[in-house]
Design brief:
Elements: H1 2-13, H2 20-27, H3 31-44, E1 47-52, E2 68-73, H4 75-78, E3 83-88, H5 95-105, E4 110-115, H6 118-125, H7 133-141, E5 148-151, H8 157-164, E6 168-171, H9 179-188, E7 194-197, H10 207-219
Parallel strand pairs: 3-4, 3-6, 4-5, 6-7
Antiparallel strand pairs: 1-2
Helix pairs in contact: 2-3
């Protein structure tokens, strides 16, 4: 069931209505089986459906299309999922990131990774990233442990938190976020995510060290 609720959540987060055909494709089930599952989720109160898809009517030779049901996750369905969110720059993706993603994913049912925008990196690090934001997001998305990668908010990190509404925010072992300060700001904004400091890391593997080695090689 959680696999099905997960697909509804992802569709909702990506702002794409999910119909039976789309659900069948995402879950690799037959159309009839997908309809059966969605109908059962609606009956149990874990999903809601609405009708959409009317076309122009009243013109000769044009008939209205059948109304196509679109499905969304209900509050009851959302309560059955534990959503984990983590974030970072991921300018040079390496095995240390993978270890962190795997630990973060183990904390819940679904992992959403927020990838920092180019302008955010420029503002905080006073340099442009090596790889642009779309490329970095695509690379993170390609990892099977990541359920969804999204670009962060250009202005305020907590706008992303509000949109995703995670149950857990996982921060890297070496990220400079202060746990106490993050908790205070979440409370101030009426957000209720739990903060978890990840422990996974691979000794000697850091983006800054990899960049330094690349620069050394290029200078030879």
């Amino acid at each position: 069931m959680k696999t099905c609720l997960r697909e509804l959540f992802l569709a909702q987060l990506e702002n794409r209505p999910l119909d039976v055909a789309g659900f069948a494709k995402r879950t690799e089930k037959s159309h009839d089986r997908a309809l059966e599952i969605l109908s059962e989720l609606v009956r149990m109160g874990y999903a809601a459906d609405q009708k959409a898809g009317l076309t122009k009517s009243g013109r000769r030779g044009i008939h209205p299309r059948p109304m196509v049901p679109k499905f969304s996750l209900s509050e009851k369905g959302r309560s059955r999922l534990r959503i984990v969110m983590t974030g970072g720059v991921f300018d040079i993706l390496h095995v240390g990131h993978l270890a962190s993603f795997e630990e973060a994913r183990s904390l819940g049912d679904l992992l959403v990774v927020v990838v920092a925008r180019d302008v955010t990196i420029q503002r905080l690090r006073h340099r442009a990233p090596v790889n642009n934001e779309l490329d970095r997001m695509k690379l993170v998305s390609a990892l099977s442990v990541v359920d969804l990668a999204v670009l962060g908010d250009e202005i305020d990190f907590f706008n992303s938190v509000k949109k995703i509404d995670p149950d857990i925010i996982a921060i890297g072992y070496d990220q400079k976020h202060g746990v106490i300060q993050l908790r205070r700001e979440l409370v101030r904004r009426g957000l209720h995510a739990k903060i978890v400091r990840l422990r996974s890391h691979i000794l000697g593997i850091k983006s800054s060290k990899i960049l330094s080695k690349i620069q050394e090689v290029n200078s030879l």
